[in-house]
UniProtKB/TrEMBL annotation:
Signal sequence residues: none
Domain called GST C-terminal: residue spans: 80-212
Protein's UniProt name: glutathione transferase
InterPro entries noted in UniProt: Glutathione-S-Trfase_C-like, Glutathione-S-Trfase_C_sf, Glutathione_S-Trfase, Glutathione_S-Trfase_N, GST_C, Thioredoxin-like_sf
Family: Belongs to the GST superfamily.
Reactions the enzyme catalyzes: RX + glutathione = an S-substituted glutathione + a halide anion + H(+)
UniProtKB keywords: Transferase
UniProt organism field: Cercophora samala
Source species, domain of life: Eukaryota
Domain GST N-terminal: 1-77
EC class name: transferase
Length: 241
């Protein structure tokens, strides 16, 4: 279950597509994220959440939804202790570093009711710092090891894609400016976004955004700001065909 605009839910779709798993996609409006039936599945009221009818497992928190039980050939994970822990280390760095800082920068840049340049600068600098950390990790790899861990793409690499994919919009910079000083990160990112599985995930997103009449930032068409959107939700004024 997912809302279409935000990046976190697309990590899960990316994984499902890359592993060629069958799944049913349930997308709903942001208005309903704090209401039943979704709040009954995820009491935190955040997307995504996944229900697995084969195992009876329900999970929320995108970093936890790595569907490793279905990666039986270890295409996106490792079995050995060292590489498994390194993957989890990078996944936690994504969850604690990339997601929160990139999200806050996007909020203050595009959605906050007032422009607070100091807040934008703080989080924009954090984005550059996170990209710098990834540059160090990738720069320590050999020429034949172009991924974050070992010599193959894993769920650790894939987790970074949905947020990095939006950096030009978030920072309001060209891609040359976004990746200035981090050439290995750019090369790594550009390989990931060329994957057919990522392109299929994006096709789903574009279709749903259009069906739900949403602007790129998740605000419905015809509404100027996120604050106006929240006010309409609070008053029960959001109506959909």
């Amino acid at each position: 279950m997912n809302t279409s605009p935000g990046p976190n839910g697309w990590k899960t779709i990316f994984l499902l597509e890359e592993l060629s798993l069958n799944y049913e996609f349930k997308s709903f409006h942001f208005d309903d994220i704090k209401k039943p039936p979704f709040i009954d599945i995820n009491p935190n009221g955040r997307i995504p959440a996944i229900e697995d009818p084969r195992t009876g497992l329900t999970l929320w928190e995108s970093g936890a939804i790595i569907v490793e039980q279905y990666d039986t050939d270890n295409r996106l994970k490792f079995d050995d202790m060292i590489h498994r822990n390194l993957c989890n280390q990078l996944l936690h760095f994504h969850m604690s570093g990339q997601g929160p800082y990139f999200g806050q920068c996007g909020w203050f840049q595009h959605l906050h009711a007032k422009k607070i340049q100091s807040a934008i600068d703080i989080y924009a600098n954090e984005i550059k710092r996170v990209l710098g950390v990834l540059e160090i990790v990738l720069s320590k790899k050999g020429d034949d090891e172009q991924w974050l861990v070992g010599n193959k793409m894993t769920y650790a690499d894939m987790a970074f894609v949905p947020w990095n994919f939006r950096l030009s919009e978030v920072l309001m910079q060209s891609w040359d400016e976004v990746f200035e000083g981090t050439p290995r990160v750019r090369e790594w990112h550009e390989k990931l976004v060329e994957l057919p599985s990522w392109k299929r995930a994006l096709e789903h997103r574009v279709r749903l955004m259009d069906e739900q009449r949403l602007q790129w930032n998740g605000v419905p068409k015809g509404i100027e700001t996120f604050a106006d959107y929240e006010e309409k939700i609070e008053k029960g004024e959001m109506k959909y065909d």
